[in-house]
Specification:
This protein is α/β, with parallel strands linked by helices. Helix content is 44%, strand content 16%. It has 13 helices and twelve strands. The strands form two sheets. Strands 3-2-1-4-5-6-7-8 form an eight-stranded mixed sheet, with helices on both faces. A four-stranded antiparallel sheet has the order 10-11-9-12, with helices on one face. Strand 1, helix 1 and strand 2 form a beta-alpha-beta unit. It is globular, with a radius of gyration of 23 Å. The two termini are 46 Å apart. The relative contact order is 0.09.
């Protein structure tokens, strides 16, 4: 049976969701809303959507499913607008927001008593690229797609939504909205606060110590990469998860105070235990099982600084899906090798290690 899917927000997430739906449901009619004209035009030209509008209300009453892939505050506003419309009976409404409690509460408030179904959603994937022009049908592959049910979620809601999104090839998991916000405050939201604070600290420090900006490579670079994230999105995320994020910040301040005390006392054993416990804890966490947060797989190759060596390595990996390559030259104190290659899964990572080591004899370190 042909269905009409309405996706509000034709950015990276919304457009990529549309492509995933089309992959498994090519007969479904996909309508799109986007305020900006450029992404609307791209989505139409690439066949991501069948029709597009800059008026959110225009297509809403035609939809069997409505996916709100817009900023959190706008999602809440759209839920209020939808409550005023004569929507299709049992229309399924969901979202793609990075925080869930305020959205679920807004849905339960505005849609109470309406013949609709609602479930909160959070596809935990992204890219440094944005807009419909960056749409990628494989963006969500093996990523967690978190569903946060509400009292508007019926027994068949989750089944219907999972079937609709089958072409995304995600790993669905269900969580309470409040618990979702607690967990993501630790593994996603607070790290952005920390990364930005660290880069701002270094920015101020380099005013008196100019070499700071030249030696800020290796671990510092990796820890602060997410400080380049879009400010508006992260402002919205933090303001809709204030309590949980604030609690994580306070907890971290206490942990830093404990480290300062150990350093000032010159307690060598306590410092060793601090680093050893951190190392072991990281190994025990499922960080490299593809999921919510940049869980990619890296190899570091110790290669000589000679002409064409990097090209030789890449030629060896022809046919292997490489996500990114990076040349780590500036400061090698805390990293392995100078060539870092990133893969999307463990199989490609291990295959690359074997190929390179057998063909070259170079040391390959996995992360």
């Amino acid at each position: 049976m042909t269905k009409t899917i309405y996706i509000a927000g034709l950015g990276l997430i919304g457009s990529s969701v549309a492509l995933g739906i089309k992959r498994d449901h090519p007969t479904y009619r996909i309508l799109g809303y986007n305020r900006g004209e450029f992404s609307r035009q791209v989505a139409l030209e690439k066949g991501i959507v069948d029709q597009a509008t800059d008026d959110f209300l225009e297509f809403a009453c035609q939809a069997d499913v409505i996916i709100l892939a817009v900023p959190i505050k706008q999602t809440i506003d759209f839920l209020a607008q939808l409550s005023q419309l004569q929507l299709k009976q049992d229309v399924l409404i969901t979202d793609a927001g990075s925080t869930k409690l305020e959205i679920v509460q807004a849905a339960e408030k505005h849609l109470a008593g309406k013949p609709v179904r609602f479930v909160g959603s959070h596809p935990m994937a992204g890219s440094h690229k944005s807009g419909a022009v960056a749409a990628d049908v494989n963006l969500f592959e093996n990523a967690y797609y978190i569903l946060t049910p509400s009292y508007l979620t019926t027994k068949d809601t989750l089944v219907d939504l999972k079937n609709l999104l089958s072409g995304l090839h995600v790993r669905f998991t269900e969580m309470d909205a409040r618990e979702h916000d607690q967990v993501t405050s630790q593994v996603s939201h607070f790290p952005h606060v920390l990364a930005t604070s660290l880069i701002l600290q270094a920015g101020d420090y380099k005013e008196e110590h100019s070499m700071t900006q030249y030696l800020a490579a290796g671990g510092f670079r990796d820890m602060t990469r997410i400080a380049e994230s879009e400010p508006g999105m992260w402002t919205s995320i933090l303001l809709t998860n204030r309590s949980a994020v604030s609690e994580r910040v306070e907890d971290f301040k206490h942990r830093l105070d404990e480290v300062v005390a150990i350093i000032q006392k010159g307690d060598e054993e306590a410092l060793w235990t601090f680093f050893e416990k951190g190392s072991q804890t990281r190994k025990e966490m499922e960080i490299h099982k593809r999921g919510g947060i940049d869980s990619f797989y890296d190899i570091f190759v110790n290669i000589p600084d000679e002409e064409d060596e990097i090209l030789k390595i890449m030629e060896l990996l022809r046919g292997t899906s490489v996500m990114n390559i990076r040349i780590n030259e500036e400061n090698r104190e805390d990293i392995h090798g100078i060539l870092q290659i990133t893969f999307k899964n463990r199989e490609d990572q291990l295959r690359a290690q074997t190929i390179i080591e057998q063909a070259t004899g170079y040391q390959v370190v996995l992360d």
